[in-house]
Amino acid sequence: MPTRAEVDAKAEAEKSKVKKSASNKSPQLLRGFKDILPVDQKYWEFIRKTADSFANGYGFSRIDPPILEEASLFIRSIGKQTDIVEKEMFSFSDTGQGTVVLRPEATASVVRAYINHGMISLPQPVKLYYWGPMFRRERPQSGRQRQFHQFGFEILGDDNPVIDAQIISITNNFYQQIGLNQISIQVNSIGCPDCRKVYIQELVTYYRSKRKMLCEDCKKRLTKNPLRLLDCKKQSCEVIKAEAPQIIDWIDEECKTHFMKVVEYLDELNISYILNPTLVRGLDYYSKTVFEIWPSDKEEGSQSVLAGGGRYDGLFEVLGGQPTPAAGVAIGIERTILQLKHKEIKVGKGLSPDVFLAQIGDQAKVKSLLLFEQLRKEKIKVAENFAKDSLKAQLELANKLGVRYALILGQKEVMDGTILIRDMESGVQEIIDFNKTVQELKKKISNKF
Ligand SMILES: [Zn+2]
Ligand SMILES: [Zn+2]
What we know:
This protein is α+β, with helices and mostly antiparallel strands.
């Protein structure tokens, strides 16, 4: 029988073995988190540039709220009884600051900033544009991550229905601009809190009569968040949903007139849309107009909403501000990129370099380092591999990068004060004056377009 000491020693050895193997394993990405790899950057750059130009063109000013906020900001705005607040927020307590969360969305932050900085005293409406990561602890699946990115346009301080139509129009134009023209715009009105109350009673009465046939989630929604009953994608509930009372029949005159106006403007703007009576968006802060952008080949039950938004007139008061009407949209960047790839849409040359600088020999290497800096300052995208000495290896790399032109500097060229420009497609080489490199290169690159 082993002595106690032997047992202890064995256990200790086992423990250190475990520790060792754990520390040898590479740390992995967290579930639902992704690296945005260099190969994908061209898509991000493309969306970012288009979004920036839209913000500029439509007069939106950039705002960057922080990623970490007080939990109460989202509990009060999005609503206690929503999936996001109930189970999807990354929250932790921070000494002296109470519970803080990684923001699950940015509209509430934008409204908080508007209130905090007294933007109500600026000429109204105030038009704001944001871009950045959001966090939700959801079950990861295609197009759904725990860290995802959105950009959005918010128009704060105006209750005119033309604002709602404008937001929808900007979103539509954005998708046309990036080449995703097969989208469907779903619109609905969920009324104001007053008329919504009446409708929810009606909805609950109807669903109670079908309680036995409802899925477990819907049974819970019936008491907690009845509007979300209309979001259920389960086949058995779809049948019940099809017969459910429609909110548009229950909203008051003011809300109805507002919605009719929005729809009229969309007609005037020649924007095709679908009236979707079951669209509710599921966040507490919406009122009146809500909308979503779906790919038009959206498969049944898929979660691939590309963008969504609407009006949120009541949000300011909920957050302690003065009553202020507002509307906005959030555009899902990952989902939009997925769709661009799915449709095989070319997104420009991205970050691929204009020219490759190859060098042979010590003197050429030194001269190339200087030339590289000169080209970079002239905003010519130049690739190199100064660590390689063989011309063949360097030109292979240039080919791999898809570079159209290569500059070749060897011993002979250094002596002659020249440099070679090689057209990588035709293989044709020209000798040019070294001092005219930038000039000649710019001529060639601009011919490309
Ligand atoms: Zn109303
Ligand atoms: Zn259901």
